[in-house]
Amino acid sequence: MKIFSSPSGLFEALGDHLGYSDWIVVDQERVDLFAEATGDKQWIHVDPQKASDGPFGKTIAHGYLTLSLTNCLLPEIFQVDGISMGINYGTDRVRFPAPLMVGSTVRAGAELVDVTEIEGGVQTVVRVTIEIEGMERPACVVDSLSRFIW
């Protein structure tokens, strides 16, 4: 894990690849819980029997579930100390290049692509790539915006 002692240290890492998270398995239970929480119960996500005859041969994770994995995986890659709070400020350029089949193993990689001073702290853009083990194309690529307040 990369640890920054303060938000100002992020400027020195601009353009750097920050590292990778651990691998996690995206199982049917996680997909079903996401479907329940969001109301998106489309068969391609929640009905393994019907999905076995579908375009992917099995259920796939929701795109927004895949995107939300960045919230649990990014803290494994880097942290910023010396702040009063960190804020998820939004996202830019979200893409889903490949479907994430249920049962797949994924990890996140992170690259610091922008750091901007703001009133009371800094704003970062971290390009997060959700990689699927054994696959060439990632499940998700997103520019994640965060604010780190002194």
Quick description:
This protein has 150 residues and is an alpha+beta fold.
List keywords for this structure.
150 residues, alpha+beta, Thiol Ester Dehydrase, Chain A, 6-stranded antiparallel sheet, two-stranded parallel ribbon, 4 helices, elongated
Please provide a written account of the structure:
The protein has helices at 28-38, 43-46, 48-51, 63-73; strands spanning 2-4, 17-20, 24-25, 78-80, 85-95, 105-118, 121-132, 140-149. With 150 residues, the protein is an alpha+beta fold. The protein has one domain (2-149): Thiol Ester Dehydrase, Chain A (Roll), CATH 3.10.129.10. Strands 2, 3, 5, 6, 7 and 8 form a 6-stranded antiparallel sheet that branches. Strands 1-4 form a two-stranded parallel ribbon. A hairpin with a 2-residue loop joins strand 6 and strand 7 (121-132). The mean pLDDT is 98.
